[in-house]
């Protein structure tokens, strides 16, 4: 597991108030009622301590490169194991069919943390390659989550298919009550690279409204009796990539972002993805995360597999 650069607690805005209120006062009734609402609406969910994690599918479609051009090093035996884990990702003629998924983490006494913001509307920056428009806003409504209820938006990284619904094309944040949590190293890497698309589309509008929270390393986003939610630096796919760890006393969910983008990287974490910014660091991160999560019961909540939740030890030899 990647070591934290610096640990601090950010109980932000409404989340701070909500979780402070929740500490020591969470009731079984409150937790059960929100769990029932999401499941009754047909959403895949998992529970980690007092937190409910809800999978929200924004879009689905084929990738612009075939599988074997996206993950060059996998053997036939590895591909066969991957297909047993996630058969839905294998399309005709070697195509890679992938989901574009976000997750909502329900806080025990109200409020939601949204992890990733999907491909976005029809005119979003992801339109050149991803299946836009996404349907995240509709899915949130169907799950009973109002945009005003979202207190945190954690962006695992600043790729187009992960920030699409964070800010509108005319620069207005979709979640007016949210703090947007991004690793500072992710922003600094874009600034060093002279990026003129992502920074102007998503970072500058959030700076203007005062909603951007650039964080360093592992950060506790909130605690409640029996569990906590925190960021987990997982660099490699991008320089400042982060995952989100939600844990209870005997259960954990890691919302992985793009640490692994296909089941082939779950069954064989040495396999690199063609578009990783630093494949050596990405491989080291993936090996460390999967090694850690295989030591104790953990669900991986994935952005791009066609199964929202998988066990870290699925598909082994
Ligand atoms: Zn992605």
Task: Explain the overall architecture.
It is a single chain. This protein is α/β, with parallel strands linked by helices and 317 residues long. The protein has a single domain (8-311), classed as Ribonuclease Z/Hydroxyacylglutathione hydrolase-like (Metallo-beta-lactamase, Chain A, 4-Layer Sandwich), CATH 3.60.15. It has helices spanning 13-22, 28-40, 67-70, 76-85, 136-142, 160-163, 184-192, 198-208, 263-267, 279-293; strands at 8-9, 45-48, 51-62, 97-106, 112-115, 150-154, 179-183, 212-215, 219-224, 227-233, 242-248, 252-257, 298-302, 309-311. The strands form two sheets. Strands 1-9-10-11-12-13-14 form a seven-stranded mixed β-sheet. It is globular and about 50 Å long. It starts with 7 loop residues before the first strand and ends in a 6-residue tail after the last strand. Residues 1-36 have low confidence and may be disordered. Residues 99-304 form the Metallo-beta-lactamase domain. It comes from Saccharomonospora xinjiangensis XJ-54. Belongs to the metallo-beta-lactamase superfamily.
Keyword list:
317 residues, alpha/beta, Metallo-beta-lactamase, Chain A, 7-stranded mixed β-sheet, 10 helices, 28% helix, 25% strand, disordered N terminus, binds zinc ion
List the SSEs and their pairings.
Blueprint: E1 8-9, H1 13-22, H2 28-40, E2 45-48, E3 51-62, H3 67-70, H4 76-85, E4 97-106, E5 112-115, H5 136-142, E6 150-154, H6 160-163, E7 179-183, H7 184-192, H8 198-208, E8 212-215, E9 219-224, E10 227-233, E11 242-248, E12 252-257, H9 263-267, H10 279-293, E13 298-302, E14 309-311
Parallel strand pairs: 1-9, 5-6, 6-7, 7-8, 12-13
Antiparallel strand pairs: 2-3, 3-4, 4-5, 9-10, 10-11, 11-12, 13-14
Protein name: Zn-dependent hydrolase, glyoxylase
Domain Metallo-beta-lactamase: 99-304
Keywords: Hydrolase, Metal-binding, Signal, Zinc
């Amino acid at each position: 597991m990647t070591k934290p650069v610096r640990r601090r607690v950010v109980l932000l805005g409404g989340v701070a108030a909500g979780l402070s209120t929740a500490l020591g006062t969470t009731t079984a009734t409150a937790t059960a009622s929100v769990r029932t609402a999401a499941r009754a609406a047909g959403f895949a969910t998992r529970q980690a301590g007092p937190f409910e994690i809800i999978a929200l599918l924004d879009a689905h479609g084929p990738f612009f490169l075939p599988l074997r051009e996206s993950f060059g090093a996998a053997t036939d035996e590895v591909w066969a194991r991957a297909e047993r884990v996630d058969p839905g990702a294998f399309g005709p003629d070697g195509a890679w069919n992938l989901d574009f998924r976000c997750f909502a983490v329900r806080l025990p006494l109200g409020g939601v943390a949204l992890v990733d913001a999907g491909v976005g509307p029809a005119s979003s920056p992801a339109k050149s390659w991803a299946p836009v428009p996404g349907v995240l806003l509709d899915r949130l409504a169907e799950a009973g989550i109002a945009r005003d209820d979202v207190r945190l938006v954690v962006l695992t990284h600043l790729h187009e298919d992960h920030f699409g619904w964070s800010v509108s094309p005319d620069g207005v944040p979709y979640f007016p009550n949210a703090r947007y949590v991004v690793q500072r190293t992710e922003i600094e890497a874009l600034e060093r690279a002279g990026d003129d698309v992502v920074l102007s589309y998503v970072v500058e509008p959030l700076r203007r409204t005062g909603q951007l929270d650039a964080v360093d390393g592992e950060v506790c986003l909130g605690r409640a009796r029996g569990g906590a939610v925190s960021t987990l630096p997982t660099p490699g796919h991008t320089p400042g990539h982060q995952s989100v760890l939600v844990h209870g006393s005997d259960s954990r969910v890691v919302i992985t972002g793009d640490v692994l983008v296909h089941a082939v990287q779950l069954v064989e974490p040495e396999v690199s993805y063609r578009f990783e910014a630093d494949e050596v660091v990405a491989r080291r991160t993936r090996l460390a995360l999967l090694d850690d999560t295989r030591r104790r019961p953990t669900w991986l909540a994935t952005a791009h597999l066609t199964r929202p939740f998988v066990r870290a030890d699925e598909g082994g030899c």
